[in-house]
Amino acid sequence: MLEASPDEIYDIELEHSLLEANAKLAVENRAVLDRHGITAIDFMGAIGSGKTTLITKMVERLKDRLGVAVFNGDATTSSDADAISAQNVPVVQIATINGCHLDANLVGKGLKKIELEKLKLIFIENIGNLICPAEFPLGSKARVVVVSVTEGPWMVRKHPHMFLGSEIVVINKIDLAQAMEVSVEELVDDVHKLKPDIKVIPTSTKTGAGLDDFERALLAV
Amino acid sequence: MHELSIASGLVEKLLEFSEKNPDKKIVEVRLAIGELSHIEEEQFRFCYEAITAETPLEGSTLEIEKIDAMVICPHCAYRGRPKYWDGALSGIPVATLECPSCGKASEATDGKECAIKSLRFTENTALAS
After folding, report:
1. Residue in A11, A16, A193 to test binding to B, most B beta-carbons within 10 Å
2. Domain segments of chain A: what residues?
């Protein structure tokens, strides 16, 4: 093998952000949404944290008052989209084919698939994953992280980055906190240590606790 | 494994460069990756190696410069390194957005980068001679 000697190696400057392509598409999505007066809210969280159930509950409460649609990101199945379809609101399933996050391109395609005229609110359910989606803005106005007490006491500390880029945190399944021996207060405290101004709402979709607060927070976005 | 999609974006950009400049062979790619980005260096290197195999980029190396997180506080005008949460878990301290000076919410100004800074290449003609 022939190797170049150092004096035969040249440099060029090439300032190019690797996240820019997605960020630009996110800005475009946002412009489309703004033009139609639609607020999109992105839900992130682990598999089983309760994202789909929480979205379903909110759709149930809001659908008669304003136009709601749901985008469901899922790696392979349509089970979440099917569950929400029962609410008779527009649902767009976005299969990432084993991809670990939604991106702005996929959401942009989704926006072309539905009639935007009658909508006021779009909930975007990201892939169940606590790391990857954080790097990929979608064009939503706020990001919600859903964690549940069943994920254990270190949930927030283990995935700090996810919270830094979000506006609302839901701590779900608080009806199981005692059985799990997890302190909800400590989880709330952990989130505030990372980001003091973030809104944290403890909820239980089973008992209905916190759902009024969460609804208010979504409408205030 | 979002490292894979980011590495794919990188390789796409580099292959574009190679196509436009067939006389240049990329030997090193210099990246800037911020402390607050979610990119795991080892996984990123692994993905890069895997994707570049059997392409004109095969054998090129990644030089990764880490960019420190910096925050600015809209409440007290603090500007500097963030507050770290020591002992959050037994691992490395976690950067937070709590202002080190007043304790309110600060905003990150640096540390989210994920960018190609520069390329090092050889002239293919030089190699041939």
Report:
1. A16
2. 20-219
Asked whether this complex has an ipTM greater than 0.90, the answer is: no
Total-model pTM: 0.86
pLDDT of residue A11: 82
Q: What chain A residue is nearest to B25 in terms of C-alpha separation?
A: A9
For residue B1, count other CB atoms closer than 10 A to its CB. 18
pLDDT at A1: 57
List, for residues A147-194, the tens digit of each pLDDT value. Answer: 999 999 998 988 888 899 899 999 999 999 999 999 999 999 999 999
Contact A167, A40 (CB under 8 A): no
Edge-to-edge, what's the strand order for the sheet holding B79-80? B79-80, B70-72, B107-110
Domain spanning A20-219: which CATH class is it, in words? alpha beta
Q: Strand, helix or coil at A196?
A: coil
The alpha-carbon gap from B98 to the nearest alpha carbon of chain A, in Å, equals 6
φ and ψ of B56, to 5 deg: -60, -10
> What is the bridge-based pairing of β-strands A168-172 and A142-148?
parallel
- Compute the C-alpha angle A148/A208/A45, nearest 5°: 25
Pairing relation of β-strands A91-95 and A68-74?
A: parallel
Amino acid at B25: K
All domains of chain B in start order, with CATH: 2-122 (3.30.2320.80)
Could you tell me if B115 and A17 are in contact, meaning their C-beta atoms sit under 8 angstroms apart?
Answer: yes
Give percent above pLDDT 70 in chain B.
Answer: 94
Q: Using beta carbons and an 8 Å cutoff, which residues of B are at the interface with A? A: 1-2, 5-6, 9-10, 13, 17, 24, 27-28, 36-39, 85, 88-89, 94-99, 103-105, 108, 113-123, 126-127
Question: What's residue B128's pLDDT?
Answer: 46
Looking at residue A3, its pLDDT comes to 61
> Does the distance separating the beta carbons of B119 and A157 come in below 8 Å?
no
CA–CA distance, A62 with A104 (Å, rounded to integer):
25
